[in-house]
């Protein structure tokens, strides 16, 4: 990120940032010059916060009060919010008609309502400062549902719709929202990839966390200034749909 003289550092919020995709997004954004506020449900968030000189908040994306506290503390410390990465955990699968209501509601709150709530908090901030960008971490099977993950894929499809609607509403205010949709992601030894993954993924390997994080950082950057409302697959060619 190239800053002009006297131009303030950009500020990013990353949720579920103690490990995995969230932690990698935080690291890549730090490398690009962002100041960070990171949140996770456990005190493990303090480790990456110390590593990156970030502000740490212990809290859950499923709790409205925690999101409100995260945004409030970020504004108190930095005075602006330029980017948000809405990341969350990975819910269990199940057989579609045996999954209890509680699991549907839990995933709805984690994947969709968390983004709706964050949007309510962040849209006024970004409008007042003249713009910003938001990336929601989804999954490639939101666009091609997998019977193994009926709850996650149903809610992620709703997230794609919400992203388009938010993007259309706030485009003229220079606020962009996109989704990133990876398939299988974990850091691995290229020589020891499981055979089932080699058979499932055309690139014959999972993504590394950083490969997803680099796409997130691109979508948050000025290089993607005309990209909004999209769900961008990062899936090694798994998706067959147009």
Characterization of this structure:
- It is a single chain.
- The protein is an alpha/beta fold and 242 residues long.
- Helices cover 43% and strands 15% of the residues.
- The protein contains seven helices and seven strands, in the order βαβαβαβαβαβααβ.
- It has helices at residues 20-31, 45-52, 64-78, 101-129, 150-170, 195-200, 209-220; strands spanning 11-15, 35-40, 55-58, 83-86, 132-137, 175-182, 231-234.
- A seven-stranded parallel sheet has the order 3-2-1-4-5-6-7, sandwiched between helices.
- Strand 5, helix 5 and strand 6 form a beta-alpha-beta unit.
- The longest helix is centred in the middle third of the chain and has 29 residues, at 101-129.
- 43% of the residues are buried.
- The model is unreliable at 1-6 (pLDDT under 50).
Structure at a glance:
The chain is an alpha/beta fold and 242 residues long.
List strands and helices in order, with pairings.
Layout (H helix, E strand, L loop, with lengths): L10 E5 L4 H12 L3 E6 L4 H8 L2 E4 L5 H15 L4 E4 L14 H29 L2 E6 L12 H21 L4 E8 L12 H6 L8 H12 L10 E4 L8
Parallel strand pairs: 1-2, 1-4, 2-3, 4-5, 5-6, 6-7
Mean pLDDT: 92
Distance between the termini: 33 Å
| Largest sheet features | 7 strands, parallel
Oligomer: single chain
Low-confidence stretches: 1-6
Strand segment count: 7
- How are strands sequenced across the largest beta sheet? 3-2-1-4-5-6-7
Helix content: 40-55%
Q: Strand-and-helix sequence, N→C? A: EHEHEHEHEHEHHE
- Gyration radius over CA: 17 Å
Structural category? alpha/beta
Share of β-strand residues: 15-25%
Number of helices: 7
- Dominant shape: globular
